[in-house]
Design goal:
The complex is a heterodimer.
Chain A (H helix, E strand, L loop, with lengths): L2 H6 L11 H21 L8 E6 L10 E6 L37 H21 L10 H28 L1 H13 L21 H23 L4 H38 L13 H17 L7 H8 L8 H4 L9 E8 L2 E8 L4 H26 L34 H11 L3 H10 L30 E2 L1
Antiparallel strand pairs in A: 1-2, 1-5, 3-4
Helix pairs in contact in A: 2-5, 3-4, 3-5, 4-5, 4-7, 6-7, 6-8, 6-11, 7-11
Chain B lengths: L15 E6 L2 E6 L17 E2 L1 H17 L5 E6 L3 E4 L1 E2 L1 H5 L3 H24 L3 E6 L1 E4 L1 H7 L3 E6 L4 E3 L2 H5 L7 H8 L4 H7 L6 E2 H7 L4 E4 H18 L17 E2 L3 E3 L3 E6 L4 E7 L9 H7 L4 H19 L5 E7 L2 H13 L4 H18 L4 E6 L10 H6 L2 E4 L27 H5 L5 H8 L6 H6 L12 H14 L2 H12 L6 H18 L1 H4 L4 H4 L14
Parallel strand pairs in B: 2-4, 3-6, 4-7, 5-8, 7-9, 8-10, 9-12, 16-17, 17-18, 18-19
Antiparallel strand pairs in B: 1-2, 10-11, 13-14, 14-15, 15-16
Helix pairs in contact in B: 1-3, 3-20, 11-13
Classes of the chains: A mainly alpha, B alpha/beta.
Amino acid sequence: MSTVDLLAKIPNNVDLKGDKKLQRALEEWQPEYLKWWHETGPALHQDKDVWLRTAIDVTAEGWAQFDYVRTPDYRWGIFLADAVPDRKVQCGDHFGQPAWQEVPGEYRNMLRRIIVTQADTEPASVEQQRWLAQTAPSLMDMRNLFQVNVEEGRHLWAMVYLLHKYFGKDGREEADELLRRRAGDPDKPRILQAFNNPCNDWLSFYAFTMFMDRDGKFQLAALAESGFDPLSRTCRFMLTEEAHHLSVGETGVQRVVKRTAELMREHPGKDLRSYGGVPLDVIQKIINYWFTYSIDLFGGEISSNAADYFASGMKGRFREEAKETEHTGLDQGKVIPVVQDGKLVNREVPLRNAMNECLRDGYIQDCERALAIWNKELEKSGVEQRLTLPNRRFHRHVGEYANMFFDYEGNLVAKEAFDARKAAWFLTDDDLAYLRSIMKPCLEPGKVAGWVAPPLKGIGGKDMNFEYVRL
Amino acid sequence: MKTENLQRHPDSYIHWKLDIQGPIAWMRMNVQTERGFRPGYILKLNSYDLGVDLELADSIQRLRFEHPEVKVLAFTSAQDRIFCSGANIFMLQSSTHAFKVNFCKFTNETRLSLEEYAKESGVRTLAALNGTASGGGYELAISCDEIHLIEDGNAAVSLPEVPLLGVLPGTGGLTRLVDKRKIRRDLADVFSTLAEGLRGPRAVKWGLIDASHAKSKFDDKVKERLAQIAASATNAKVGAGMKLTPIEATGDERTRKYQYVTLEVDDAGRVATITIDAPSSPQPTTPDELRKVGDQAWIVKAWRELDDAILQLRLMNETVGVIILKTRGSADAVLAADKLLLDHGSDWLVNEVRLLVARVLRRVDNTSKSLFAIVDEGSCFVGSLFELAIASDRSFMLNDGDGKVTLRVSPMSDGRLPMSHGISRLQCRFLRDPPQVARVLEHTEALDADAADELGLVTFTPDDIDWEDEVRIAIEERASYSPDALTGMEQNLRFAGAESVETKIFGRLSAWQNWIFTRPNATGEHGALTAYGKPVRPTFDWKRT
């Protein structure tokens, strides 16, 4: 099929057919994208039919069309949520002025940076999850993995659309770069550190989609409040897809917890390793790892970039329009604990500079809600232990608390004290080896691996026994 | 008078590590966030303040004198993902304007001394940028002979001052872009307004750096290049170097006394007097003798002391407006000490001493305080010290009638102690009558006031009846003028003749950068520099000037 034909098949609501400039940019980019998919997308089963949801428009029916499709043939589309008539800038110095339909020159570089940073996370996660299909605990899980992958791919398309459409030659170059960087490659790593960390087992995959994709939800929600309307509309539509990824993660961890709780009830006081289950402390360690890396993604606690993004109206708070009453963010402060002379002290910083922290607050609350659901599973099985989230200062690599050491409760400690507890907080080589040993594929329709409970329900009108991937 | 210890030593560097491995010297930047020169700011991301730059200046000086074995000097960072993010913005925000400019001037002098080290001392310099170099970080890199940048998808070089701060790269960045690296002006224009800068391959294409290497190969590539440079160096320096010991001074509120230099400050009158004593004991006459005496030799020590005194005035005593330059002691002793430089210039260490004297004199030239030389009884403005007399904005020579007060010109004034634009102070003085330079140089005899006046070497020659009043009134009058107007006037008048990169840098620092820094658009209540890091965005007065 020629590129022109391929373009004709791209579902979109951005008038691709009538937009010569966009067509020309995509003609060059699309073959490179497919090459990238082949090289670094799912390592297995690119030639197999997968029961996937495809968005063909933004209506209630159109955004979730189920059918068998091979992932490289997936119809990655470009969609903007419906325009809000007469939309205004939601926050900052331009609050109340008409939203921008074109890139404002003075914020061009800032916007490009925001878009590129967000865009870079999308292909990164596909790369990180490349090998997971070979150890899928069920066909439906494998299908969910591929669904997440193709939609992260579509999110890349959504961001590349903005770069192609609004940023000229620079935008095209940035779009090319997005396909050149590789998660974990020391020479061309992904921009954010957490997106270079390996994600090689299914417990990590669930935690990744629970925590990292949930960061994505909050970032997209903040960008959905952007005064640059095309960015807002793009992100609003992406959020509908992101919700599915979060539920894969949240219910995934929940299923592991449920299975672990059952095993703990059946074998009280025993090491679950003897029964092929995931010990509760291993689940806790996975939470510790991905939660702390995910809160790094929100950026520095005190940030001039965050202040600039808000002041310019390029990025709002979570549900800025619906939830907040005051939208300039001026003459208000937020208290942030900082380390001064070796002690934690509270410092009041201007609210605008603390916008990253505001977003992080909402995120942590959302995570706590999920934790409560998981703990319910423990409670139901009569298990007394509970899962927890570490303090936000614990194990940080970005922001005020980076390059320092805090214990699980957030107290400043010496490096030695931190190192001494590492094995209790994070996966050891033994833990990893054990996880690898139980991650055996379970590919018979209707069956699921022994370390995880079955999914709560089927997908796309099908039940658990459906052949979600035709191997 | 306020003073600070401006002396540094590698054993107690806080922010840098000097590591010498045979012919290769490494300077690794690792700025300690909490140990700023002054309280009130945190030195994040390898950003620097005066304390950081004092160590850098010390290291270059020390490499010159103590390490003849070094053939190549490489700069890198000991921090991950960042080479250097330039001068600390919060330090600049919290500094007086006078301090800011003098800080910028000092950093410029340090980078110029680095360039001179490469040009005159035969050492190649290389910036190994293992992370982003922005603002002053790139300005340090661009002061090196070659720049290598890591390619990790993130590292870039940038000059973000215009878009982010509403000021200019204050350490000669713009001038070096177009004048030194000869970047096309339109590309330089784009680069200087691109806050995030340019990464490896394009930065190479535009000429901003010389090479970029993938992260996994970066260390090896740089090492390989350094070894290559070291191996191809031919200029083995014969003979040992000399250790530089700390400059010491004692004093009180008014006086700072070094061995050969005395600094007195009249805070109320805003006048400082620097008196330089001639040597009173025999001085080395051969390179061997110089190596024995080391940095205690007058020709080294007196000039290092003068250097410290000038910096104390610039950085710690902002309101002092006039510097009175005086000399005391035996003219013959000064000429005898100078003779080492005249007779043994081919010895590398002697040559380093000459370069040191020349640098200190340029530091004097570039000081934004009025300079008056007082040639009175007991003075010895001869040879190298005569340069101070003609470096001054005005000179007063006592016409004592019996020829006791004299000055003497020597070959030290024939161009071996050049000004910032490469010509001698005599050439600069006699641009209207160039042959006069040679005529003056022929008069190596002691010149009394009338003779000096006739040759155009002094400004005023009052007799002893008028002397006291004339000198006093001139100083008082000078100290009363607008300090800004004087800075601008002196900067215009001191450097007649063709510009060099160096005079462009200082001229523009004094004029444009100085002006932009004080404009409301930068430092007003809503200016960009004021607003940086704060929750409000700047608002500008849009009138172009």
